[in-house]
Write a structure and sequence with these properties.
Helix content is about 85%, strand content about 0%. It is globular, with a radius of gyration of 19 Å. The two termini are about 20 Å apart. About 30% of the residues are buried.
Length: about 210
């Protein structure tokens, strides 16, 4: 392919290429995270059983998003909805657990940077849960023709992507502050996979009004 044609395709179809790129990165990171998790817990049946379901859900959503992005089929939206549902469950479970265990008081204990990280994470998690619920509902409505505001959907997707990046970006630092002995690979690979997929999802949603 001539370089001029390549750059022309890249210019007019950059959203498609970026969505595929980040979906591929997310899937590769997820494979790495699961492989390391399996090696680390191969002798712990309970940990494998408890943790494998999260990876199964993410694998299904990531593969749907990647294949749907490459082929340009509706499979990609099924993947996005599964991915959003997983994130909403993750945020909701964390907030519910924090509330039931009286954890809101505990986030104000410790050093100043520990308090800052904990408060920042909780605030972003709550915001991500609220925005994510609206995004999930609006995306389903948009797909079936019951919601027509592309700008509103794109804005929700952008805000949610930023919140996911910030929240999951907090996780490694938060984990190491609260649990210094935590495994570094699991702490980094999982959040990076989620962040990559969130970016891919945003670019996919921005393509709903065009073929680019």
């Amino acid at each position: 392919m001539r370089s001029g044609l390549f750059f022309q395709k890249l210019k007019y179809h950059y959203k498609r290429y970026l969505s595929i790129l980040f979906a591929s990165i997310g899937l590769a990171l997820l494979v790495g995270a699961f492989t390391y998790f399996a090696i680390l817990n191969h002798n712990d049946g309970y940990a494998m059983f408890a943790g494998v379901w999260n990876y199964v859900i993410l694998f299904v959503s990531f593969i749907f998003i990647l294949v749907g992005s490459i082929k340009g089929t509706g499979l990609v939206y099924s993947g996005i909805l599964i991915f959003l549902f997983y994130l909403l469950w993750d945020f909701g479970y964390y907030i519910l657990t924090l509330t039931m265990n009286g954890g809101f008081l505990m986030i104000f204990q410790g050093s100043w940077y520990s308090i800052l990280l904990n408060v920042g994470y909780v605030a972003c998690a709550i915001a991500a849960l609220v925005v994510g619920i609206f995004l999930y509902i609006r995306l389903r409505q948009f797909i079936i023709g019951r919601y027509s505001s592309y700008v509103g959907l794109r804005t929700l997707a952008l805000i949610f992507m930023i919140l996911v990046i910030v929240t999951y970006g907090f996780r490694p630092a938060l984990l190491f502050v609260n649990a210094p002995s935590a495994d570094v690979f699991i702490a980094i690979l999982d959040p990076l996979a989620i962040i990559s997929e969130a970016v891919s999802t945003f670019f996919i949603i921005t393509r709903l009004k065009s073929s680019y």
